[in-house]
Write a structure and sequence with these properties.
three-stranded parallel beta sheet; 40% helix; 12 strands; 344 residues; Rossmann fold; alpha/beta; four-stranded parallel beta sheet
């Protein structure tokens, strides 16, 4: 979508943009091989990262070897990103394991029923586990009593035993370090036990399946963009959301709302265009120097890269499923019009 729009505007520096997309099959070793090919065989001018922390680390190693800038959009463990010419659009700040759980617990503390006890159930998927360990530490410092801490292997399919442990613990608040459909799987298993958590959070769920699940009403998660004001007050963001929905409808997707991944990916292209346009160059060092020295206006907010490991502010928000839709509820100034944090 972004490439089509770019090329309608005569591309970058008057040249049409060709986007080469390769499938790394979610395998970091394959990602490394493919990025090596992009640089040495295809001889691409610019690089954008793959999906997920492991694959991005592999791509980052290649970028560093050849001194290429790497813009990426789903890196979840900031302290591992040591390369000076990497730039993240997953804008979670340098210490998300501290800052986001703090934000979430602020929201819970301001709710009509502040929790006193917490259960933490987490996948061992690296970036998810990292955030859950951080949440555990922050919750303890905030005085919440931990009634369950449970880790499970990434790829787990049978959530029955995990659900039974959650039901037995009966926490005021459930934090689930989930990725993809794991949150839905746990909710289904809890329903079979006739148990519905009161306050419940899922870290990186598949947005569509969770939003439309009857089990997920009032579920909480994290976000950096949702398709409602104040995010869509920005005309570029409003047009992005409009085009996304049109394309999703044309493709026949069952869930057509903009999700966090699409927004982060779009933002990566915004960074690339801004740097190339400002420097009138494709030189990686010139582009990286400009990005470190300037704030960039994007659909998720103004990004800066002058902090630890090129991270800036944590722009995370808390969103909630309400009537089959995700809406931001915290901080209040980013809440959807008329929306408030709902507690069953």
């Amino acid at each position: 979508m972004y490439v089509d729009n770019l090329n309608r505007k005569k591309g970058l520096l008057g040249r049409p943009v060709e986007w080469i997309v390769l499938d790394d099959q979610s395998k970091p070793d394959l990602a490394r091989t493919l990025y090596e090919k992009l640089v040495t065989v295809d001889k691409v001018d610019l690089l954008i990262g793959p999906y997920a922390t492991g694959a991005i680390l592999s791509a980052m190693a290649v970028a560093q070897r050849y001194q290429k800038m790497l813009i990426h959009h789903t890196f979840g463990i900031p302290h591992l990103a040591k390369y000076e010419m990497h730039f993240p659009t997953w804008a979670i700040g340098p210490e998300p394991g501290r800052t986001f759980p703090g934000l979430l617990l602020d929201a819970l503390a301001a709710s009509p029923k502040p929790p006193q006890t917490i259960a933490i159930v987490t996948s061992k998927f690296p970036s998810v586990h990292f955030m859950s360990v951080g949440a555990r530490e922050v919750a303890a410092k905030r005085g919440l009593k931990e009634v369950l801490y449970l880790e499970f292997e990434f790829g787990t399919r049978d959530f029955g035993p995990i659900a039974a442990r959650v039901k037995d613990a009966n926490p005021d608040f459930l934090w689930m370090g989930a990725i993809g459909l794991e949150g839905n799987q746990l909710l289904e298993a809890l329903r079979k036990l006739d148990y519905r958590p009161s306050l419940h959070f899922y870290l990186y769920p598949a947005p569509g399946p969770m939003a439309v699940s009857p089990d997920a009403q009032h579920a909480l998660s994290t976000t950096i963009f949702e398709e409602h004001p104040p995010f869509t007050n920005h005309p570029v963001a409003a047009e992005f959301a409009k085009q996304f929905r049109e394309r999703a409808a044309k493709a026949g997707l069952p869930y057509q709302a903009v999700d966090i991944q699409a927004a982060a990916s779009y933002t990566a292209w915004q960074l690339l265009e801004a740097a190339v346009t400002a420097t009138k160059s494709l030189d990686d060092r010139a582009l990286a120097q400009w990005l470190r020295a300037n704030r960039v206006d994007t659909i998720i907010g103004k990004l800066r890269f002058d902090g630890p490991n090129n991270y800036g502010d944590d722009l995370s928000k808390v969103k909630q499923v309400q009537d089959g839709k995700w809406v931001v509820v915290w901080p209040k100034e980013y809440a959807a019009p008329g929306a408030k944090f709902l507690v069953p």
